[in-house]
Specification:
single chain, nine-stranded mixed sheet, alpha/beta, Inosine-uridine Nucleoside N-ribohydrolase, Chain A, 12 helices
């Protein structure tokens, strides 16, 4: 049975691979819309990027929406040093045929959820959580409609990738993340502890290069660029595919090991702003609010990704 999903992202090469994986699963996923948020690059570029990626995919039916251009409270932060000036560097940037909907992303999220049945729609969030938190603040009645929130964000054992203790998506808008993690709906979180287990490699890029289609070629180009920064930072052979973990989980949850944990987000400390306090061993006695992913079958993950890319 198809799962109805709304995707909220900030492309980003790994967001692009997440979208490619999602759109290659029409039997499993009914994508109601794709929303852009400011994150890896400013909203002006993330909203353009979702339309470029829509063109590459050949999407004609799923609408695209522009969301929030800054965090709820903090000053915005971007990551061109990782993703390049355009966010999806590694491919040619062009003026997309896909057009943004006139309606804003937060309006779309609120209206779509309000018209849904309880526990009907899954939110897949691979950028800062600003759009989702804004929708929750605007209309709390949407909460019962959410089946699950699948988030790329946070870190525990791996530490942070933008500060010593904070992962980028959470750090950019920790106040939004706090709202989402405390919303009371089921959450599955894929932080650096698991995404750093799925670094690309020359052999993975070679397998993608052998696929003769437009999406695979775009994937190869973006991953070749994306790997340069992270390969040096982590002394690895490529870059971690953070965001595709969310869709891989929806398609093959058996690839991952998750544990019920309480997660609290730091919003006050200058030193640890955006830190995700993952109570992995239950030492606080606080009730679990998240399924925290901590392990992934790497070979199975890349087999799934490459097989789906081959379908284009």
């Amino acid at each position: 049975m198809q799962r109805k999903v709304i995707i909220d992202c900030d492309p980003g090469q790994d967001d692009a691979l997440m979208l490619f994986l999602a759109f290659a699963a029409p039997k499993e996923l009914n994508i109601l819309g794709v929303c852009a948020v400011a994150g890896n690059v400013p909203l002006e570029k993330t909203q353009r990027n979702i339309c470029i990626l829509s063109d590459i995919i050949g999407n004609e039916n799923v609408p695209m929406f522009a969301g929030c251009d800054k965090p709820l409270t903090n000053v915005g932060l971007t990551a061109e040093h990782v993703h390049g000036r355009e966010g999806i560097d590694g491919i040619d940037i062009f003026s997309p045929k896909t057009k943004l909907q006139p309606k804003g992303a937060v309006d779309f999220i609120v209206e779509t959820l309000l018209s849904a049945a309880d526990d009907e729609i899954t939110l897949v969030v691979t950028g800062p959580l600003t759009n989702i938190a804004s929708a929750m603040l605007r209309e709390p009645a949407i909460l019962p409609k959410i089946r699950e929130i699948v988030v790329m964000g946070g870190a525990m054992r791996e530490g942070g990738n933008i500060t010593p203790s904070a992962e980028f998506n959470i750090f950019v808008d920790p106040h939004a993340a706090k709202i989402v993690f405390e919303c009371g709906r089921p959450i599955a979180a894929f932080g650096l502890d698991v995404t750093h287990q799925v670094f690309t490699s020359p052999s993975v890029l070679e397998r993608i290069a052998m696929l003769d289609n437009r999406v695979a070629k775009a994937s190869h180009g973006m991953l070749s660029f994306f790997g340069r920064y992270d390969a040096q930072k982590y002394r690895a052979q490529g870059a971690p595919l953070h965001d595709p973990c969310t869709i891989a989980y929806l398609l093959q949850p058996e690839l991952f090991e998750l544990k019920s944990c309480n997660i609290r987000v730091e919003t006050d400390s200058e030193l640890t702003m955006g830190h995700t306090g993952v109570d992995f061993w239950g030492v606080t006695g606080l009730p679990a609010n998240t399924q925290w992913a901590y392990s992934v079958h790497r070979d199975g993950f890349f087999d799934l990704l490459i097989e789906r890319l081959s379908r284009y």
